[in-house]
Design brief:
There is one protein chain. It is built from 21 helices and twelve strands. It has helices at residues 15-21, 25-37, 62-77, 81-84, 94-104, 116-131, 136-155, 158-161, 165-174, 179-183, 195-207, 219-231, 247-253, 270-281, 343-359, 375-392, 440-447, 455-504, 510-540, 546-554, 559-580, and strands at residues 2-9, 41-49, 52-59, 89-92, 187-191, 211-216, 238-243, 256-259, 335-337, 394-396, 414-418, 435-438. Strand 2 and strand 3 (52-59) form a beta hairpin. Helix 18 (455-504) runs parallel beside helix 20 and helix 18 (455-504) packs across helix 21 (559-580). The longest helix has 50 residues, at 455-504. The radius of gyration is 38 Å and the shape is elongated.
Length: 581
């Protein structure tokens, strides 16, 4: 049997696909049950987080295993197999072990070095043990991955390379300000009471928020989390629990809201967020949300004092714009007045501007001189200017473009952090005035440019060493049932020969019989000791899997005997694992 993992994560798939493929708790259970019921797999485990969905299995056939696991993922995620396949990755045997160990150390996380993944791996292991879908291979693999992750965090500074997804999200919301200073005294709303929401609540409490409100579908869990926060020795935050239907009201009081639930639909719609902002500010959050980014000249009050234009005062300009200051339709914000001007004047101005751009001011005619137009060179420019004049009543002054004025946008009065997958908060909230939203998609974009710490290389070396050790132990364990079967066969032969000796020498007393039996057993043990020790060493090396077959062939071992030994060992291991769960 061999380890196989098929999955997708933020590294292989866009957030939109991850969001649609997200598995509920019930879907994960059904996926595990269907996987172990499938022909290629005997063990299964699911690791599902906000940015990855991975299915681990012990399979007897690689290609059949990949096909079956991919199909099962597609069926239970609700995303068609053809659409899902381009985003799937496959790891097999040692590469699968390396992948899970890297995940456990935070090397494959959206925020490198974050430690939340260890809790998620622990939860995945507990689920497989509870459902009895994990045998010796996956139990050993997941338990070892937890040890590797803890070793990486204790022996290196990987914690300095990254932080929790919650902290990273809060840093994005604070827009460069110190998170603790930004959160100090704010009111926070946490939607959900699971592991991620609990981490968010604890992080907010340590940062110094004045109040935390916990909203959850199961009020008891929200009350328990609120009590933990209130009783904490390291904070003095005021925490209370409310039912989910109180979220709209609490949102009008909150300065920041963090949401991470297991809901399959939206928890906060754009309309509800807009209503909350309007309830706080008295103005609609949608005002100007879809307006343009520049201010038009028409928006300038007619009685405003406008800066004088230089056009018409420059040497050689054929127009005297000072005579038409204040004329209806006239604007000096980079444009020349043309309303009511004769076509000849327009043509002269157009030619003067065009030649000024091409040849420079040094070649312009002196004041009062008559400009001779080149019909062929200026025909297109004059025609375009005349068309513009006929349409808008003025000719654009090409050398002085109108300045771009940014539309004013109020400072956010409500900060939202969505850590759920699929998302809890409508993405349309991005367009609301007075609201700042950070979600998994924006975190993925921000983390792409996050710096890597020097400790990452050290963690990678730890992972490589641990993979080599685990794979060697796995290969050695693979031959153990064969060695046990060999020794069992030898013990049976000794017992058989001693029984025959009793028939031939019935006058032997118990002491003599015991001495003979002990001598024969010592001889057999000594003959088997060196070959069995050596074959375990050879089997632990890369490519050593074939030694078990060679041993079975050389000693003509019954395959069923070997299989029965293996089943007995797995049953004992599973009993221990159920005790751990």
């Amino acid at each position: 049997m061999s380890l196989l993992v098929v999955g997708l994560s933020h590294r292989s798939a866009p957030v939109s696909v991850l969001e649609r493929a997200a598995l509920s708790a019930d879907a994960q259970i059904k996926l595990l049950q269907d996987t172990v019921a499938a022909e290629p797999a005997t063990e299964a485990a699911v690791l599902a987080t906000c940015n990855r969905i991975e299915l681990y299995a012990d399979v007897d056939k690689f290609h059949a295993g990949v096909a079956e696991l991919s199909t099962l993922l597609a069926q239970h995620s609700g995303v068609g197999l053809e659409e899902l396949t381009p985003y799937l990755y496959v790891h097999y045997e040692d590469r699968a072990v390396h992948h899970l160990f890297s995940v456990a150390c935070g090397l494959d996380s959206m925020v490198v070095g974050e430690g939340q993944i260890l809790g998620q791996i622990k939860d995945a292991l507990a689920t497989t043990q509870e459902l009895h879908t994990a045998g010796r291979l996956l139990n050993d693999l997941f338990q070892q991955s937890l040890r590797v992750g803890k070793r990486a965090h204790s022996e290196t500074g990987i914690d300095r390379a990254g932080q929790s997804l919650v902290t990273f999200g809060l840093e994005q919301l604070s827009s460069g300000a110190a998170v603790d200073a930004w959160l100090k005294g704010k009111r926070a709303l946490v939607i959900g009471a699971g592991s991620m929401s609990s981490l968010a609540a604890a992080t907010l409490a340590r940062a110094g928020v004045a109040e935390i409100v916990i909203a959850n579908r199961t009020l008891d869990r929200a009350e328990r989390l609120a009590q933990i926060l209130t009783d904490g020795d390291d904070t003095d935050v005021l925490a209370r629990a409310v039912p989910m239907d109180s979220v709209p009201v609490e949102l009008t009081r909150a300065d920041i809201a963090v949401s991470c639930t297991g809901a399959t639909g939206l928890v906060l719609s754009a309309e509800s967020v807009a209503g909350a902002v309007e309830g706080r500010t008295g103005r609609s959050a949608a005002e100007g949300a879809d307006s343009g980014r520049t201010a038009s000249p028409a928006a300038v009050p007619q009685n405003a004092q406008l800066a004088p234009t230089s056009v018409g005062t420059e040497e050689g300009c054929p127009l005297d714009l000072s005579a038409v200051q204040g004329t209806a339709g006239f604007s000096v914000l980079g444009e020349a007045a043309v309303a009511g001007m004769a076509a000849a004047e327009l043509e002269q101005h157009a030619a003067w501007v065009d030649k000024g751009d091409a040849a420079g001011r040094a070649q312009r005619p002196a004041a009062g001189a008559v400009t001779v137009l080149d019909p062929e060179a200026d025909a297109d420019a004059i025609a375009a200017l005349a068309a513009a004049a006929a349409t808008v009543g003025r000719v654009p002054e090409r050398r002085r473009p109108e300045p771009v004025v940014e539309a004013p946008r109020p400072a956010p009065v409500l900060a939202l952090l969505d850590l759920a997958m699929p998302r809890d908060i409508d993405a349309a909230v991005h367009r609301l005035l007075g609201v700042r939203l950070v979600d998994i998609e924006s975190l993925a974009e921000a983390s792409a440019d996050a710096p890597m710490a020097a400790d990452v290389d050290q963690v990678r070396r730890i992972v490589s060493d641990e993979v080599a050790a685990f794979s060697a132990a796995l290969r050695a364990a693979h031959i153990t049932p064969t060695v046990v079967a060999l020794r069992t066969m030898a013990a049976d032969l000794v017992a058989s020969e001693i029984a025959r000796l009793d028939g031939r020498l019935p006058d032997l007393d118990d002491k003599q019989r015991g001495e003979i039996t002990q001598t024969v057993r010592r001889v057999v043990d000594k003959l088997l000791h060196a070959p069995t020790v050596r074959v375990k060493q050879l089997a632990a090396e890369p490519g050593g899997a074939g030694y078990a077959d060679a041993l079975r062939t050389l000693f003509d071992l019954d395959p069923e005997t070997v299989a029965s030994v293996s089943r007995a060992e797995n049953n004992n291991e599973n009993a221990k694992n159920r005790g751990r769960a």
